[in-house]
Amino acid sequence: MRKLKCYQVSGMFVQEVLDEFNERANEFGVSEADIVSVNALPPTLGTKISTPQGTKDPKVEVVIVYWAND
Predict the structure, then answer these.
(1) CA-based, 20 to 30 A from 50: which of 1, 28, 43, 60?
(2) What would the pLDDT profile of 13-61 be if each residue is shown by its tens digit?
C-alpha cells in the first residue's frame, strides 16, 4: 500500500535542497511522478546548518510531499 511521506529540511537555498533530494531520489524510491507538492517557507526548525564557513542559521525550509511504496 502506498503512503504519503514528507521530506522536510532546512537549507541556505531552495535549489541546493532540491538538488540533494534529486540526488537521493533512488534512496527514497521516488520518481518525479510520485511528488505531490514542493513548498519553500521560512525556517521553522530552529536548527543551525553546517557550511564551509562554520554553522549558520538556515534561510529556507523546503517540504516535499511524495507517494512511497513502503
Answers:
(1) 28
(2) 999 999 999 999 988 889 999 999 999 999 987 788 888 889 999 999 9
* Continuous segment of H or E residues that includes residue 26: helix 25-28
Three-class secondary structure of residue 11 per DSSP: strand
Order across the sheet with 60-68: list the strands. 3-11, 60-68, 35-41
User: Could you give phi then psi for residue 8, rounded to 5 degrees?
Assistant: -125, 120
Rounded CA separation 60/42 (Å): 5
40 CB burial (10 A radius; 0-12, 13-18, 19+): middle
What predicted TM-score, i.e. pTM, was given to this entire model? Answer: 0.85
